[in-house]
Description:
This protein is mostly helical. It is built from seven helices and no strands. The longest helix has 29 residues, at 126-154. The mean pLDDT is 84.
Amino acid sequence: MTVRGGRYRVAGVLLLLAVLHFTVLPLLGDPRVAPDFLLVALLVYAIRARPGDAAIAGFVVGLVADALTPVAFGAGVLAHTLVGYLAAWGKAVFFAENLMVNTGFVFVGSLVRDFIVLVAGRHVAGSVLLWQLVFWSPVRAVTTALAGMVTLFAFRRWLDVRMSE
Length: 165
């Protein structure tokens, strides 16, 4: 696989995830439970990018997310930018080519993103905030991590993901 061919393949996977986010996600029912394909795309990119590039990608994904839910505009930008940056930085600490490590990145990234959006957005408070953080965010993080695992498994050769250590 050439570097250029690898870039096109990764770009194709990212484009597929963006299309799934806007076509399949509305059909999956409750948005509190449905996986976030844009976050999966951001993390697939961030794990392979430099922290600055991943932060820029997170900023763009956050703008798109905030444009779709303008209740707490800016919270999504902040959350996605930080998650993109931290995921790219974290690849230096962890072995990021492993399927389970990548799935863990998606799970933790989803939890961190939800926490930042909920706290910085301030559109929920009290017991609703607690319920969201304790129950709905982990449920969505699990479904997002599963979507990430399926994506990484299905495109493991294109994304250079190892199945085991």
